[in-house]
Amino acid sequence: MSVARIAVVGGDGIGTEVTAQARKVIDAVLPGVDYNEYDLGARLYHRTGEVLPQPVQDELAGHDAILLGAIGDPSVPPGILERGLLLRLRFDFDQYVNLRPSKLWPGTTSPLSGVKAGEIDMVVVREGTEGLYVGAGGVLHKNTPAEIATEESLNTRHGVERVIRDAFARAQRRDRRHVTLVHKTNVLAHAGNLWSRAFAAVAAEFPEVTTEYQHIDAASMFMVSNPQRFDVVVTDNLFGDILTDIAAAVTGGIGMAASGSVNPERKYPSTFEPVHGSAPDIAGKGIADPAAAILSAALLLEHLGKLDEARRVTEAVAAEVASRAPGAPLRTAEVGDRVASAL
Amino acid sequence: MSVARIAVVGGDGIGTEVTAQARKVIDAVLPGVDYNEYDLGARLYHRTGEVLPQPVQDELAGHDAILLGAIGDPSVPPGILERGLLLRLRFDFDQYVNLRPSKLWPGTTSPLSGVKAGEIDMVVVREGTEGLYVGAGGVLHKNTPAEIATEESLNTRHGVERVIRDAFARAQRRDRRHVTLVHKTNVLAHAGNLWSRAFAAVAAEFPEVTTEYQHIDAASMFMVSNPQRFDVVVTDNLFGDILTDIAAAVTGGIGMAASGSVNPERKYPSTFEPVHGSAPDIAGKGIADPAAAILSAALLLEHLGKLDEARRVTEAVAAEVASRAPGAPLRTAEVGDRVASAL
Ligand SMILES: CC(C)[C@H](C(=O)O)[C@@H](O)C(=O)O
Ligand SMILES: CC(C)[C@H](C(=O)O)[C@@H](O)C(=O)O
């Protein structure tokens, strides 16, 4: 029997190049994994018009986790691959915890002056299956002066409470044990009130965790003026999308930004992918940095309960990045080899 | 006959202190303005339970503009004053252009390393009367496991097109003549499509203005990694709320952040106010920096067609700020006096 079944969706552009390195590194710490590669993304879409055929989705469902590279190509109209693949996996596989750690690693530089490696260390727990991402909305009187377009944010007690509980459980395991709720309760009064009440209820279950509330606009500002203040942040789908990109920016860009779209109960497979895109401009050249993909593999290992393996991979990537000479050219495969052989 | 009728709503905390300086400066460049002071904010709310009594609103409607200090106090539940006063003025007075310039002034320091004064100079034109701010939504099955809360974003062709046209007209008058549309078209497909089509249609009317589109998450990242790239940004109500706070953060915080909630047709009065809050911790001490309030007064003058006066006030504030010794204590009234006497 294999130790784990992992579906690999390299995807577009540099996606396949970086997942190859992530596989290499997983093999170095956890031999015996079964991989199945799926060719999804722009190529499949152009060939068949399909993004995620039902039989493929059914096969994916039989895996323990999905390792994803990057999806997206300028040749495909925006939204099609994102909604048809990434969001469909999040919704159909109930990946309600969208996990985005941000750390300022030694060897990386923050654009913020005076912020030193180690000082920023947070994880944003973004809701992944509700909010404005549900696609509820429509258009009336299109292309007339009377046109109206709507988007509806749907928030359930069920969906909000479970992601908040996940955030508190993570905070409980961290040094600072602090959770910040980010919303816009002064304007989005209905959803804000639900989030606030659910937050207060869950907080009562975790007396050792300290809490704080910030409006999304203030939180975005603090991400720049004082990102050190954040430990665990929990927020809705759209606010999380924005906040995690600011968090990535202040920790030196998306080069080290890993993410997981997680179904914590493991009823469905979770997806792990670097935050960066398919970078068509450098695709095929073997010069993409696989660090974020390998760190995403570490999140995958952690999700499968391989805590020690996950920690070792993360440390090996950190060491590799810290050892880089500033501005030196980088070969994708060599980075993967160095990290794998250090393990 | 007076040259202009300005309603002054000092509001809470440091609000009254900073608007007093803004009045002083307006008087120095434009003698003969008629002022009426209105005591709105936490005090009125506690005394009467009202936030904006209808007779007061009717009186405000008779003014050319409203100079506002700050609204908000910890003693009032969040949302009440914001929705009852600030948002009510924006909606009832059809202030659909929410104007937020961000500039890195000499004498101020960006938290971004290597970014020098003068390099960041943008204006965000945020829609002010639609989107998720309309308050459409509700709660079902409150306090049960079946609870659901919704928020609806409403976007009309009418509302979207007029604010985009305003943004292009502003860009046309600027050196770089560039407009960036920010939205999330890959996820918010209905509203995103309306915004994109309206943007393309208006762009065709301004052949000299170059354009660009960015998703809100990418734009938030660029605000940190490369804010220099922005000239005019046009976006919806909520994205604008977030982006302008990031823009303020990268230009050294809200100390110099001015704003206008503008009805360009001047059918209703427009509101001008600093982005900062009421700062209860330093209220009454005479140490609040009135720079943002005075810069807001400059936006007010510009709105009234007093372009030369507006420019002179802006330059005088810039000179005052540039002349400050780093870390030196500051007296609110002295800053106002210095700016006024320089004019
Ligand atoms: C590609 C897009 C649909 C996606 C999102 O908005 O969630 C991306 O920005 C992300 O953060 O994973
Ligand atoms: C106070 C609040 C309602 C307001 C907003 O969200 O618009 C504020 O954040 C602003 O930016 O003017």
UniProtKB/TrEMBL annotation, chains A, B:
First-level EC class: oxidoreductase
Location of the Isopropylmalate dehydrogenase-like domain: 5-339
InterPro entries recorded: ICDH/IPMDH, IsoCit/isopropylmalate_DH_CS, IsoPropMal-DH-like_dom
Documented EC number(s): 1.1.1.85
Keywords: Manganese, Metal-binding, NAD, Oxidoreductase
Pfam family, one: Iso_dh
Cofactor(s) listed: Mn(2+); Mg(2+)
Top-rank taxon: Bacteria
SMART domains: Iso_dh
GO molecular function, one term: 3-isopropylmalate dehydrogenase activity
NCBIfam families in UniProt: PRK03437.1
Name listed for the protein in its UniProt record: 3-isopropylmalate dehydrogenase
Lineage: Bacteria, Bacillati, Actinomycetota, Actinomycetes, Micromonosporales
